[in-house]
Amino acid sequence: KGKGAVVNSGYRSPTAVRDRHPSGFEEVRVHNVDDLENVDGDSQAVRIASGVGGRKRERIEDRAEDGDIRVLNPTYEEVEVEVDSEEVAEN
To answer: Could you tell me if 40 and 65 are in contact, meaning their C-beta atoms sit under 8 angstroms apart?
Structure first.
């Protein structure tokens, strides 16, 4: 009733994909631009730490783009969508 499933050996993922992002890249946590120097863009992807501010985050994302390094948590810009008043009136 209040007990969960007993963990057996079948609950663990294979060693080849263990501790990897679902995209297949190994995650590397980055706190500043200098941390990007040790990242291999072919097998590793970057996750920017939550304590990094907007200005430093922008610099990290620019440097990662130049080095063909994937950022797992990029900053998204808001896009405004224009709505015609005629379409709204029809609905």
So the answer is: no
Amino acid at 83: V
Give the full edge-to-edge strand order of the sheet including 70-71: 26-30, 44-48, 70-71
CA distance 7 to 57: 40
Domain assignments of the chain as residue spans, ordered by start: 14-73
Which position has the token pair 């224009």? 82
Distance CA 88, CA 46 (A): 42
pTM of structure:
0.71
Per-residue pLDDT tens, the chain, 91 aa: give them.
688 888 887 778 888 898 899 999 999 999 999 999 999 999 999 999 999 999 999 999 999 999 999 999 999 888 888 877 676 666 6
Contact yes or no for 47/27 (Cβ under 8 A): yes
